[in-house]
Design goal:
- There is one protein chain.
- By secondary structure, the protein is an all-beta fold.
- It is 0% helix and 45% strand.
- It has no helices and eleven strands.
- The strands form two sheets. Strands 2, 4, 5, 6, 9, 10 and 11 form a seven-stranded mixed beta sheet that branches.
- The radius of gyration is 14 Å and the shape is globular.
- The N and C termini lie far apart (39 Å).
- 33% of the residues are buried.
- The mean pLDDT is 94.
Length: 132
């Protein structure tokens, strides 16, 4: 069974950092664009960041630019989201996702709100709480 598993969430104070990980089981992530999404309490899920299979192309939502960094280690079939300078409004369940296809252009030109519809494989999420 193809699955994505997120880890690394937790409680952190404002201004702190966390690193989330996304690992695949049943398939390898190496050939896929991977995205991070989040859903805050009472809000719709939103796109946070994406990364190409090589790691050479990344995209970020405006709300996290300059604070979050997406990366991947294909040797470990794992994608990371380094989150720095965390704010209370970053509190959410964070999900990683991958499309059904290995196309590297599937998200080209799309705004973060449009990424989600192209994703097929989803993890169950990891909770991040930013609070003092």
């Amino acid at each position: 069974q193809l699955q994505l598993v997120e880890s690394g969430g937790g409680l952190v104070q404002p201004g702190g950092s966390l690193r989330l990980s996304c690992a695949a089981s049943g398939f390898t992530l190496d050939d896929y664009v991977v995205g991070w999404f989040r859903q805050a309490p009472g809000k719709e899920r939103e796109g946070v960041s994406t990364i190409s299979s090589s790691g050479g192309s990344t995209n970020y939502a405006d709300s996290v630019k300059g604070r979050f960094t997406i990366s991947r280690d294909n040797a470990k079939s794992t994608v990371y989201l380094q989150m720095n300078s965390l704010k209370p409004e970053d509190t959410a369940v964070y999900y990683c996702a991958a499309p059904r296809t290995t196309s590297q252009t599937i998200l080209d030109g799309l705004q973060p709100w449009a990424w989600e519809v192209w994703m097929h494989y989803w993890g169950k999420g990891t909770l991040v709480i930013v609070s003092s």
